[in-house]
Amino acid sequence: MSKKDSKEEIQEELSEEKLTTEETAEEKEPEIELTEEERLSQELAEQKDKFIRLYSEFENFRRRTAKEKVDIVMNASESLIKELLPVVDDFERAQHSFDNAKDIEAIKEGVELIFGKLKRTLESKGLKPMEAKETDFDAELHECITQFDGGEDKKGKVIDEVEKGYYLNDKVIRYAKVVVGS
Question: Is the pTM of this model over 0.85?
Answer without folding.
Answer: no
